[in-house]
Amino acid sequence: MNDKELNDILSIYLADVIESLEKNNSSYRIIKRNSDEWNTINKWVIDNFPFKSFGLIKWSEVANSKCYEWWDWEEMCAALSNVLMEIKESKDTPVYLIWSDDSFPFFEVNYESILSSGDVIIDADSDAWIVCPSKGWCIEKHHDNEICFGYIKNRQ
Fold this sequence. Notes:
Radius of gyration: 15 Å
Helix content: 25-40%
Number of strands: 7
Strand content: 15-25%
Distance between the termini: 36 Å
Number of domains: 1
């Protein structure tokens, strides 16, 4: 992907995410698809969570995972809020934003950014993940009206 294509994606599809992050004075870093860092993050998710053949996590195989159903914007926001209350992470912990659209880059933000912009972040694509390799957890928003959360098996 060249810089023009990336800028088009950012200005068209992820503009609301960037606007929300900037409005909340959240710093973010863009990680280009197929870069070494992108591959490392992607590998961590794949290696640590069981996936269905169509790309969603098999939450029934993740011990102590929780899933929340939602049917509209308010319920989606409430489900995300429930998950974030359970995590209780340090505000400066780095997390990564992943969307199912193959053309989207990943973003690195801190956990505080999720508290202030999480609803916009997960609404940017039909399926989205917020992952934290350093703490061993993942949030998944699925287009079939579910938000799930769980920790990897051998987290420290």
